[in-house]
C-alpha cells in the first residue's frame, strides 16, 4: 500500500507518459535564455510551464547565459526543474560591452538625459543586453553550433499544450521567423533607428531580396510605424542572423551609436531585419501558442486551438493590436518599390 493506503498495483498506468521521448524528426536547436542570478525564481516559473507544456516531451537542451558567473544556488534551482540538458555560459567583454563608436563618458550623459524619458532609459546593463541580443548571441560558442533557437525569459507564462515540434514545423514549411505578440515600440527609444536603416538600405540594395515584407514596418510615407515582433518569444532559423545582410546591418547600427545614446531594442532590430530580408511566407504567427510576458498576453480564440489552453482569449492583447491586424493584411513589397519610397 502507498502513502494514501491504496494498493499500488490496483492503480492503472497513466494513459500517456509525458516523459516518453517523442519520436520523429528533430532539428539542431536549443532553448536559449539570458538571465541574471537574481532571476532564479522567475526563470523557474517560466521553465516549469515550458517543460509542462512542451519540453518535457521534446527534450531540447537549454543554453543559459549570464554576464556574471552563475551561482551554485542558481544552477541547483534550475536543475531541479528539468531532466533535460543544461549548458551554462558566462559572457566576456566580446559579448557584453560598448559599441566601438561610443564612449562611456558620453553614454553616461545620455543615460542621465534619458532616464525619465522611457523605461530603462537610465540603465547601462539594459543597453549591453539589447546589443548582445541584437548582434552577438548567435556567435557565442554555446549557440554558434545551433541551427535554430527558441528564446525564453524569466517570468513568462505558457498556456497551451504544444503537442508538436514548432522547429520541425517551421523547417518543413520553409519558415524562418516565428513570433506570438507584435506590439508597438516606444518612439523615443528608437528616434534615429529608421534614419540609419534607410541609409543602410540605400548603401546596400544588393544585399536585399527582390520581395520582402518590409511593408509591415514601413508606412506609405516611408517612415517606421514602430511595429515589431516581441523578441522575448522568438523561434528563429539562425541563418537569418548569420547572413551577410544581417551582419552588415548590425555592424552599421553598432557604428551609429544608438544602442547607447538612444536605447535601441533587439526586438525592433530583429523585426526590421526579418521583414527586410524575408517574405511573407517565411514569417509565422504562432497563434496556437498562448503566452504572456509582463505587459502583454496572447491567448488563441479559435476553438480548436483554445481547447488545449488555460487562458482567456477575451483578455488577449493580440486581437486588439494594430500591428497584429496589419500583419494579417499586409503583403510583400518589391525591392524597386521600397527603394522608390525611401529615396523620396
Ligand atoms: P524586458 O523584457 O525588456 O522588460 O527586459 P528584461 O529585464 O526581461 O530583460 C530581457 C532579458 O535579458 C531577460 O531574459 C533578462 O533576464 C535578461 N537580462 C536583462 N538584463 C540583464 C543583465 O544585466 N544581465 C543578465 N545576465 N541578463 C539580463
Ligand atoms: Mn522580459
From TrEMBL:
Keywords assigned: Transferase
Any GO BP annotation: cell wall mannoprotein biosynthetic process
Keyword Transferase tagged: yes
GO cellular component: Golgi apparatus; membrane
Active site per database record: 234
Similarity remark: Belongs to the glycosyltransferase 15 family.
Part of the whole protein covered: 73 to 416 of 438
Native species: Linderina pennispora
Protein name, as recorded: Glycosyl transferase
